[in-house]
Each structure stands twice: as C-alpha cells, then as structure tokens.
Amino acid sequence: MTDKQQGGQPPQQQERQPGVQGQMTPEPSGDRPEYKGSGKLDGKIALITGGDSGIGRSVAVLFAREGADVAIVYLEEHADAEETGKLVEAEGRSCIKIAGDVGDEAFCREVVDRTVAELGGLDILVNNAAEQHEAEDITELSSDQLHKTFRTNIFSQFYLAKAAVPHLKARKGSIVNSTSVTAYKGKPSLLDYSSTKGAILAFTRSLALQLAEDGVRVNAVAPGPIWTPLIPASFPPEKVKEFGTDTPMGRPGQPEEVAPSYVFLASADASYITGQVLHPNGGQIVNG
Question: Could you say which of 74, 159, 184, 193 is catalytic?
Fold first, then answer.
C-alpha cells in the first residue's frame, strides 16, 4: 500500500447503482500486495455479498490469501466479478460467482445452497451488499426507493443469515456485517441508507446474543468514507471530488484499508469477540 495523500478524487459520476469499479478513476486499491497471509482462514469457506468490487473484492482477496475459498454475490457487474474471481484464484483458492438480487429471499437461499454444494460447506458469511440514493428532503423519498434500500441493505442480511445459520452452527462459523459510520453520525441526504445501517447495528448485536451459545460469532464493520463504486454511482461529480476530505485524515479510505478488519473478525484472533463493531473511518470519533 503506497502512502495515501490528503484530498478527494477526480470528479466523476456513474448512472447506475451499485456502480462499476472498472469505470472509476482512479480504481480503488484493493489487493494490498504487502499484506502477507498467515493461514488464519485455512480450509474455511466464505460467502461475500457485494463481493465483485470495492470493500467486498478486497475482503475476498484477503480471505483467499489467508486460505479461504470464496463465493461472491453481485447484482449484474459481470466484468468486475470476473476480475475478482481472477484475483482470488491467483491466491490459489476457488471462487464461485453468483449474480442476482439479494433483496429476494428465494435467491438468498439459492446462494447459500450453491455455496455449500459447490465449495463443500460454509464457515463465514459477510453481509456487505448495499445501495444508497440521495434525497435532500424526506418529502423527496419515494416509497419505492425506501422499500428497495431496506430490501437490499437489511432484509438481505436477515434472508442470508436465516439460510446460513444452520451451516454456521455446524461448523462454529461467524458472520460479519457491513454497517457504516452513518449509523452513528447520521447523514441528512441519505436518510433511508443511514436508517438501514442503524438497523444492521441492532441486528448484529441481537443476533450475536441469539447465537452465542451455538458458538457462532456475529460482528460488524462500520467503514467511514471509502472509495468504492457506490460513491460515483451515488453522488454528483462535485461531491465526489470532496468525498472523504472532511475526515481527520483529510481523505477517503481505500478498500484495502478496511478488509483486514473483516479478516480479523472472521478469524480465531477474534474468538472472544461477538456483538461488536470495528471503525475504520479515518479518525472520526463515534463512541459506539
């Protein structure tokens, strides 16, 4: 990882969510070449939603470097998913790619079934897929958008956990959910997104308590402003240019700076940690 400079990114915009990593300038840094695997996830099988790009891609690569086979789930960004698959396979691990809408419960069941059937089980579930849409006033927030954001961001985590938990119990596995700094600080133009991230926080804590006796740990990561395809797909160019510059570090983070938090929570290093949240957010104090 090269030294990160203060400042934002070149102004740019994409027309569709969740965005395409291959169209970003510069592309996010995700493979962290100086990160040396040490077998923390040897023999494990992980399922990662939103695994084609951004944080999900970086998590997939580092999981593979630590010895895990990986299933990635994505909406329809096939080129990004192919690149993630190549990066995982370059680490000597298997990667299956599954396209579809995680807001659909039947699809979520299919995802878990395919992962177990094709990779041989399931040890780690990473609920990472998300979407966000700006609305400066609550009166501008349509019912369709509200429902869709909740289906993608939080309903999917219920659906996937329901399908995955029987397998995770059998293997004393773990769940890592992606929440956000907005769950703690709020974001006036992302009212529905911030609300789903708050719901994920409560979901994480409650599910951790429910599954503790079964040996399944449930934790979360709350990234701050991270340079991923969701950013140019969510904001106009002038906001993209300033994205992340209001953090104490003065810049947005990169996916490779977030992924090690997922590795830690998924590994035995975190064997006595459940119901907790890590905060890679550039120095923002959230007291959470």
Answer: 193
Name the 3-class secondary structure at 42: coil
| Token pair in block for residue 111 | 């995802």
Tell me the per-residue pLDDT of 193-212, one tens digit each, with 9 for 90 and over. Answer: 999 999 999 999 999 999 99
pLDDT at position 3 is 52
The pTM assigned to this predicted structure is 0.92
**260-277: b or e for each residue (b if 16 or more CB lie within 10 Å)?**
bbbbbbbbeebeeebbbb
Task: Tally the residues of the chain.
Answer: 288
Residue 211 has what pLDDT?
Answer: 98
- The residue written with tokens 């691990």 in the block is 93
Contacts of 234 (CB under 8 A, 6+ apart): 17, 19, 132, 133, 134
Q: Give the C-alpha separation, 125 to 216, whole Å.
A: 11
Specify whether the CB–CB gap between 48 and 71 falls below 8 A: yes
CATH code, 37-278: 3.40.50.720
Active site residue 193: yes
Largest CA distance in the chain: 51
Domain spans of the chain, in order of start = 37-278
Per-residue pLDDT of 112-145, as tens digits, reads 999 999 999 999 999 999 998 999 999 999 999 9
Burial class from Cβ neighbours inside 10 Å (0-12, 13-18, 19+) for residue 181 reads buried
End-to-end alpha carbon distance in the chain: 28
